[in-house]
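Hi R.,

As promised on Friday, here is the backbone we talked about, encoded as structure tokens. Could you run it through your design pipeline when you get a chance and send me back a sequence?
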């Protein structure tokens, strides 16, 4: 897990686990790579991508539009880059690209322009309000909270979630012994495309290098 706060939850799990356990503080790709270098192989590799309920429920970390909190969204809070840097620092065209690419947001340009006009934005509640105001009223009534795609996109950008992702399925497959199983849970179209492409490549032998 990339999040250092996962350690205390892991400690509770490890105390009751009927087998030896180990927490690696890294992304899936980096952690699996480290285990391969150590000569460890697995019968089962299971990767659950994206955000955890632990992170969402810690309201002060700013992952959710349901709470008023500072613009943070860092999975690893030792990194200096946060959501505030994206929201208040990106030019409108770059911000729109992030919202469209990582959030599938069809009103990306309108939202980006509204964010730039409202700067400085310091809290999740203010950001959510700006996003809602930028979306046409009919579109606000369907598909859940109007800000959910914007928050998702900014979180993915802050944490570089898709940058290292292609290496994770490759490492999972390499890490799994013959006859074993590798599984990846993805929740976003960008994640889904990358995982399926890598799995398909491994199954057919086609190179995606």
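Update: got your reply. Pasting your designed sequence below so it's all in one thread:
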């Amino acid at each position: 897990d990339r999040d250092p706060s996962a350690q205390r939850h892991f400690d509770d799990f490890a105390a009751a686990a009927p087998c030896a356990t180990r927490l690696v503080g890294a992304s899936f790709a980096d952690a699996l790579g480290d285990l391969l270098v150590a000569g460890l192989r697995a019968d089962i590799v299971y990767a659950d991508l994206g955000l955890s309920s632990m992170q969402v429920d810690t309201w002060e970390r700013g992952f959710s539009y349901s709470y008023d909190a500072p613009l943070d969204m860092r999975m690893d809070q030792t990194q200096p880059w946060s959501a505030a840097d994206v929201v208040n620092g990106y030019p409108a065209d770059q911000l729109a690209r992030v919202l469209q690419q990582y959030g599938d947001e069809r009103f990306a340009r309108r939202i980006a322009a509204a964010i730039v006009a409202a700067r400085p934005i310091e809290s999740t509640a203010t950001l959510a309000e700006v996003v809602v105001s930028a979306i046409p009223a009919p579109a606000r009534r369907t598909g859940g909270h109007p800000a959910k795609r914007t928050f998702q996109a900014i979180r993915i950008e802050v944490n570089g979630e898709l940058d290292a992702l292609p290496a994770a399925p490759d490492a999972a497959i390499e890490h799994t012994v013959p006859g074993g199983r590798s599984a990846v849970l993805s929740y976003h179209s960008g994640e889904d495309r990358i995982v399926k492409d890598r799995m398909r490549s491994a199954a057919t032998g086609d190179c995606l290098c």
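One thing I noticed while checking it: The mean pLDDT is 90.

Thanks again,
M.
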